[in-house]
Amino acid sequence: MAPAPPEEAPEELLRADRLPFERRYSWSGRFARLRQEARSDLEGFWGGIARRELRWERPFDRVLGGTPPEYRWFEGGELNAAVNCLERHHSTATAHRVAYYWEGEDGSRRTVSYADLYERVRRLASALAERGFGRSDRAAIYLPMVPELPVAMLALAYLGIPFTVVFSGFSAEALAHRMNDLDARLLLTAEVGFRRGKEVPLLATARAAAAQCEHLEQVIVLRRTANPPALQERELDWGELLAHRSPPVEPVPLPSAHPLFLLYSSGTTGTPKGIVHGTAGYLTHLAATMRWVFDPGPVDVLWCAADVGWVTGHSYIVFGPLLCGATSVLYEGALDYPGPARVYEILERYRVSELYTSPTALRSLRRQGDELAGSHDLGALRLLGSVGEPINPSVWEWYFRVIGAGRCPIVDTWWQTETGGIMVSPVPALDSRPLKPGSATLAIPGVDVAVLRDNGTECPAGERGLAVIRQPWPGMLLGLWNDPERYRSTYWSRFPGVYYTGDYAVRDADGYLWFLGRADEVLKVAGHRIGTAEVEGALLQHPAVAEAAVCAVPDDLKGEVPVAVVVLRSGALASPTLAEELAEMVGGRIGKFARPHRVLFVGRLPRTRSGKIMRRVVRGVIVHGKELGDLSTLEEEASVEEVRAAADSLAGDLAPSRATR
Ligand code: PRX
Q: Considering the domain boundaries, does residue 235 fall inside one?
């Protein structure tokens, strides 16, 4: 049984200096020193970490090079990510540690040690090398949450093949777009995934995507059922590939800035952009944040309950934990399947000591009540983490009191696909400053976050502004794939010389940062990042649609959901069936998670006199029931009334959840 929550008043309870977090005292004072070191010598600070934490095949000549904003960390150095995550543990006791406790939704289990993982990685890398794949190629991975997913990532890293992992919820079109953008020659996929008791037909989707990709030469298929389909041309069976023992190859030493992976992420405009991460800077950032934020020791078990298809999984299921020789849980399936006890059973079964999940998952657990936490032994938990969207203070307190039984500090970690690793977070192992529910607290050492007004001056305490990062950090993206111009204009032009995050934030009187959501046309639906332009683009492909505006509407469970406001072509008739068809279509073209929650029909959209759709006005009317801000450029006032009438038809369905924020 988990201990009953203590009786103290919440304010008292939430003070980190009252938390029995044993290691804090031995580190006392060290953290202030770290910040000071980073402030006085940024390059010396990160250079020291890179030297201590990574194995280098060739030492770097310079800590920070490149031409801003194309910064290049650890120039002149050479290393390999798979060597750092696996090979260097091989001659140590870590080889016998568990790397992953894997659990499938149907209850199947596998335990993979560091030695096993390394063996599988070497065999896959050797087989790929024998087939002629090497560092001048690119690969895509479309796999469910199985141990073969980290194996694939590390085998590609071993050979220096940059890869993109495509979340298994993405459609054929999204997969094809990514493979074509990269000219991928290789795809690693599986016959099916399993979710909510059903088979997800990954191979069928992969085939539909492959048919659109002329560069693709080889598809490696992991079979998972008793009666797998026959393989087609270009396809190879994963098991057979490994059964044929290829001559072993050595890991390839790679320059520090060699692209390790790309992740496609939604931005303000156009199609998703390929965010490129390098090798040395990214790994250095992860090594540091793993130690500061999670600090895994020999008995710890981490469960980062994200999907490896997103950056959180790359950094804190795969590369970060493996760098530190830590043990993780890898779970394939829905967190509430077959019932709401699933999360608690996993926490209990593997004696998870560090849980890292999203506010959406926590809101859903809270909805299921407190009893399940009390009826499972969660006594191994010592640290709780949150990521991906703002966490409501009430959810934070529930997490602290019910899941953590009042014993475990919460690390609310703010970062982005672009930042590679955690940027702002409490560091309870090193810093005894009190936590505040809803605040990610302070930037980690070596990271300088500021909150600016539109005119570039710094906001005083308490004033909302735009979050920026004022100096380079090692985990930063190298750029956008094949698009240096877009890299500059997206991140470095809003305020010249500083990195623009796209987030609203406020700093309070104690200097703590509170991230308040996106300031641009990006939605966070259940923590997933979706661009309004992407959803609008999918809607516009329907023959009945003339125009579309998509906006984020608060949702009690998912944080935000997309609502689409659509103008039909003349002759097309608005109907609930068409609304459903349009929502389905977005699900099919992007992925189910991007499906509009509602589709509203109007005769015209609010526009500026120069013809731009005023999404701010659409959102204001839908969410707040009124237009917000300056309307002087609005062309036709009647268009606002149309949106209002359409939104009213939803009645209580879109209950704004501002009160819980
Ligand atoms: O708006 C911020 C939000 O997630 C965005 C980044 O999304 P993505 O690239 O998908 O990466 C998510 C996982 C790192 C940010 O611009 N966000 C992330 N963490 C937090 C957050 N908002 C508030 N609090 C957080 N802890």
A: yes
